Request: fold
Amino acid sequence: MRSLFSFLNRENKRSEIRHSDFAFVFFLRSIASLIIIVLIFLLLYLWNGSLPILKITGFKFFTDSNWDPTADQYGALPFIYGTLLTAVVALLIATPIAVSTALFLTEIASKKIAKPFGFLIEMLSTIPSVVYGLWGIFVLAPFVKIYIQPLFNNYLGFIPFFKGPPFGIGIFSASLILAVMILPTITAVCREVFLSIPTTLREGVYALGSTRWEMIKTAVLEAGFSGILAAIALGFGRAMGETMAVTMLIGNRADIAFSLFAPGATMASVIANESPEATSMLHVSSLSAIGLTLFIVSLAVSGISRLITQLTKRRLSK
Amino acid sequence: MIRILTSLVAFLSATSLYAAVAINGSGSTFAEPIYTKWFSDYQKKHANAQFNYQGVGSGAGMKQLLEGTVDFAGSDDPMKAEDAAKAKEQVLHIPIAMGAVVVSYNAPIQGALKLTGPVLAKIFDGRITKWNDPELVKLNPKATLPDLAIVVATRSDSSGTTAVFTEYLSKVSPEWTGKNGKTVKWFTGSLGAKGNAGVAGLIKQNAGTIGYVELVYAKENNLPFALIENKKGEFIEASNKSVSTAAEGVKKEAIENNFKISLTDSAQKGAYPISSFTWMLVFEKMPKDKGAEIVNFAKWALGEEAQKTAGSINYSPVPKEIRAEALKAVGKIKLQ
Amino acid sequence: MSSLNSALHSTLRKRRFKNNLMTFVIYLFSLIAIIPLFLVFFHIIKNGSSSLNLDFFTQLPAPVGEPDGGMANSIVGSLILISLASIIAVPLGILAGLYLSEYTEDYFASALRWTVDLLMSIPSIVVGLFVYTSIVVPLKSFSALAGSIALSILMLPIVAKTTEEVLKLTPTHIREAGLALGLSRWRVILFVVLRGKSSAVLTGVVLALGRVAGETAPLLVTAFGNRNWPQSIFQPTPSLPVQIYNYAISPYENWHRQAWAGALTLVTLIFVINILTRLIFSKDGLDKNQS
Reply:
């Protein structure tokens, strides 16, 4: 691709200046500036909004677990806890299934099956969050309440993590729906990673007399390990930012309870729930601070995942 | 394609000039049913005004009124002094209907549950955790209370209903004093839902749940609700009559406080102890076109016909004497 | 010799067993992966189709607690919001993507690339609140305009990114051929490069549309909701996802059924959009998953 500078040089040689090209670049640059300005305003809005509460509490904002709008006291720990817990549980459930599905699509399935199967998984990712929430409230939560929670209560109830009366809604149901929602993301990235592993590696392992599973273990999974990590990071990012389905299933309690079946709240859900009604300046500021935190963490996670993907692709193509 | 889209936009912008006056309100989920019914009836006769109301909770409604993004707010809790001070104009609280906050439940019980104030406070504090707790059995000897855990459903959003309910609790239980308001820090293990609708849904879907909702929502969903002991020691069922009784004899107090009075724990005989007004909050100075429509609607809503409609869908009409005073106050609204 | 043979044999059996076991696990997990999809579709179709009648598509919502009523205004509102958002985001997004791919060396381009990546990571509710503070409050009204702007901020990075990726795939000799013919650079970009990849670019647009059609959280604080027909873009506007949400958390059976019907409508709409994407894809012979 020509650089603008060399292009200009050529033009000078012909002593003909393409005004239209200048105008075009100027036009494009102004559009770019517009977009950049919108982002700057957005960041300023988040930053300015967060300052009032952070000036008062400082870093303790993130470690204090008392969220009490009535007393104008704000500690964001319950939401950080809720976000991390739901995301981690969702990942624990989704990752094995996603990796298996990706393996199925790349190593086992014939082209005839892989195409429609992959299509179906992608269709999962197009369903809007609110529809998942709707399904979650009326199908998943009752199912969890009637079948799964009593199971846990009866056999594993001595572990405080699984205690609690069966509400149906709560951290577990929210995590479950998140698992369904991040499954296509993780599957897609893993599939890309597995496809980019050179066939020669696979053939080499087969040549040593391995079974298909041994080949998968040594050639695909080990080689693609960092790619799987990248996929997990991406899924993690997506799980943290989910708003609607989580809000509808998590029970909306700004508390840290140790049971998986207790209600809770995430950073996204508290922003969605309390922003329309926050009147005190500190309340509004706290919600902005949580928004800023969520943004920064999502950014960090997606940055890490992209870094890993790039490094993996570069390593494998050698 | 672009041409179609731009002409659509142009059309829409143009129609905004000729459309009926659009008036937006938001707030109390308790009042949402009556507002939507009233608008539907009112607009049949007055086509030049179009009303839109969204039930987002009293807190959100008041915030939006203060920010100017809605034209009126519905609230079951009077605006706090410090919030009202932020407003550029005075906020008028028009009492348009009355309601009861009932304690609804989902449990296999014979007959209606009887509760006293202090016991209620203990349930919602997490101190009574089972349906067959001795204190509950004492109040309800004939009802076979099940050995089931009590799941407490509360509001997760800023709610006038919560304000009324917790204000009552703070009057009857020393442990609750000072812990009342539109948002309350409920005990760990209670569930939170959005709107009266959300709480009603929680109760309906989970056996063993108990929660507080406006009477309208309990009746609409065929949920049983408890008889609460009032100040006179009677166990009262919430009804149009028992709620109206709570507002008897308060005319003087109402006028003194610009209608912002509490009706909880009324000393009247036969009064339901957790009753309240629901108010329509408007600014005392409004722009002419929207203000005129709002004033007309408010006057209509305080009239016989509208109040009767309210009564027919499980709201209690505002007593005549208070309505007359409210009409006077509405008449004083300045339109510029 | 025979002991070595049998030793080999037994390990071989163990390895074969492990292979079969893991293959079974992979099959099982893959099946588990698509079960939610089928369940969700099953329930949406089962519960939604029973309430899909003419009323649903033509009526306004009935007063609270009354039977019947429909979501017609929400469907129209959603279409308005998506159209407006596209008017803003599509031209800007394509031009931004174009700029990123054709003028990579330009100093602005790296700044724009960072910006687009940042915009992609912003949670949608945060975008909604930003638009609330900067547009809804000053204009003193919830509006379709505010809602569309929020949606366009969410759409733009997707359109820009896909446009950039797709245009980058044009081989350099195509551009050089255009320039060699004496076309000015902007003509080459618009009429040769962009036109050549127009279906792929449109695919990106359509994908972004599909994603934004289901957005709820930002609309809750920008377009708000309205029980009447949308009559002005400066007034609160109903939308399908918001209405589904409001009905889902309500206690009324009638509204629950309508929520399912709304979900069916929404998912069908998005599904159709995605199928169209696939058809346009095959024209270009470009499978995104393999690029």
Remarks:
- Chain C touches chain A through 89 residues (CB under 8 Å).
